[in-house]
Amino acid sequence: MINVWRSLRFTVVFVVLLGLAYPLFFVALGRIAFPWQAQGSLVSVNGRAVGSVLIAQPFPQPMWFQPRPSAVNYNADGSGGSNLGPTNPALVQEVRQNLQAVLRENPGLSVREVPTSMVESSASGLDPDIDLQDAYDQIPRISRATGLSEAWLRSLVQRDAEFPVLGLYGEPMVNVIQLNLAIWEKLHPEARVGTAR
Q1: Which of 62, 94, 133, 160 would bridge with 145, disulfide CB 3.0–4.6 Å?
Q2: DSSP string of 100-146, one letter each residue
Q3: What is the distance, to the nearest Å, from the Cα of residue 11 to the centroid of all Cα atoms in its chain?
Q4: Would you give the DSSP letter of residue 85?
Q5: Which of 27, 46, 45, 47 is nearest to 37 (CA)?
Q6: Could you read off the pLDDT of 67-79 as tens digits, one per residue?
Q7: What's the predicted TM-score (pTM) here?
Q8: What's the CA gap between 190 and 174, in Å, rounded?
């Protein structure tokens, strides 16, 4: 019987310590040390949260940069890829449909010029970044839709490009919502764009 009570005491102590105190400590530390990130890295327009730099969302109008296709329809509640292999007919069909949409939305692009990131969904289905070629390929469409010069849009992509740390892993990327917020600011100079607090 003594061992049962001892086991129960250990269980209670470790539930309080590891189930409550430890997680609460790191939540508090995150909110103090990284308040913006701990709140979801939200961005705002005129004081209203419009998205997060960490989660992709659809931008259906031609005036915006488009994120990678999403296997979960940009639903953050159920992130994940399609898990379809390269020989799966469903994946081949999905890529074909995405390719047709990309070519329709971006006249002047040929099949050979379309980067894979424009037609294949990311592993999470919520990737907020696109590679630089993907962004550059969208510039003519956005320029026609907004009236902004291609040179300005190209400089925007170059300004916001993020390069791999020490050039070791990955490719240069750019965040879609940051690009789209910059376009919004340029088209609406009176707007207040920033981080939602």
Answers
A1: 62
A2: HHHHHHSTT--GGG--GGGTS--SSS---EEEHHHHHHHHHHHHHHH
A3: 41
A4: -
A5: 27
A6: 988 777 666 666 6
A7: 0.75
A8: 25
